[in-house]
């Protein structure tokens, strides 16, 4: 059991004198060897702080008990639940501060209260004091990080978290550990304090009303096993926060409580329904509800039933008049498995847009499942993300992982567990999405919350998948000594250059991913080669392949590029969506703005034709005559394309330098004022008149061209 509360010290028994009941006054002899300057002030200060901590804990407990009793007596029955909830939230938000041994003053300033509490608490969990952790960090970290408070917070936290290799951290069940992780995120976000007395506010230290930002959540939450993934942490934070400014402690504990319920429910459901499924499958989600049933469409007939998703397949138990039938199984591990949205309806009509089509290799193994949801398409989209993630993780295993019968899998320590690690990562993503669904904090695109499916469609996602493969299957090389005296396997770390194209790939901790496993075509891409050449850790303290203090691991580095390229794609999509505006006046304005460069070119050509600037017209004619008489017409098109390419490069360079201004290249469309039906009819009439004018001008131009080719004159008969 994790214990984060300070020890409750008992008072020492008083020594009674035989002759007198009164305590004897201490006497100081003139010849005594005890001097006041010899007293250890640090020891006295630490002992006083410990007593004050005990007193604060006792006073806080007594205050909460008294407040709860008073609320029971004074409040009516209708307000009891609300008062109890508020008291419970206050009690949960109160953090018991242990005896502080951290040196609060560093070169860059005073440590914040959050940093002091986080460092001290994790130091106790690691078996040290806060001051000892500071000294260890100064001995391990580079010189420029010795006084970096944020790096110290990361080290104290990551050192304890690196001891856990489970899929879900066991200490998440403890409220004290949930508080500590939340405090650590606050400390990472603001490790310094302006006040020069950082211990003055430890009396009533609480996280109630505090908010965690996105960067702190993305840095700390993925370090706790099962809470978040590096690749989807940004979208998870946005889904949790929604329209709020940050992540509150109440929302943080609610999310973790639902996450623990999901994992506990999986184990219970797997044991209860083990007879209906294969022994090596784990139940992930069950879709069965009287209010929101699941329908399986066959020959335009909908059959209600229970849908169960495991880590390998889908099971559907049809419900008939005589009860449930034998469950049908659809394998999701096949290489031809796919899932997509579908529309269903009676008599073959595409009426309801709430279904998915799942197939496994052949058309005979194709299911059409409708997820009835009267509140929208949320349920269908969530199940689409569930099924897509299972299909994507096995596609990832086939593309980036070694084969099951590959003998080289035994040459790398822990590589035989790589497939299990990948599947566990996918099931954890599904569990987090289920938790968000239960607390009604779903993201607008649930597919961005499941790791493998999102990366398979994201720009630069193939490189992130490569880093995940190195994380799952990478490990130290194992070599058997040839001498009979050394029969035990030994670990070997190669000294080859990780950036070379023909060598194995190495993780930040020296783990090896063999060259023969790089069968995916993505390894041969240029952006993949550039990434792996610059993938080494420049500075920082490496605690494991996933936890690096003051630097990023491979997955985090790849996600930086993926996130930047995703922003570019999102801006492009937003531009396309903005171009598809509604309304005739708005579309006319957009058309005019897009045709503005061509209109300017046409106007300049008309000026040349009218001899408004004789010098320009003369130069243009000389150039045309030179091209014709010198027989250089074949060079016109290549020269034009080359000049266009040079112009594009020049514009791009000037734009990156900021010399063209912010408004360059922007299309401005003014919002049309609201109008009634009569005004819309008048606008339509004006638009039709403009179209008629354009058609007349176009007909005149075509007639002129026809006359030139036929060498005649147009006549009206």
UniProtKB/TrEMBL annotation:
InterPro entries: DUF639 (IPR006927). It holds the Pfam family DUF639. Keywords: Membrane, Transmembrane, Transmembrane helix. The chain crosses the membrane at residues 632-651. This is Uncharacterized protein.
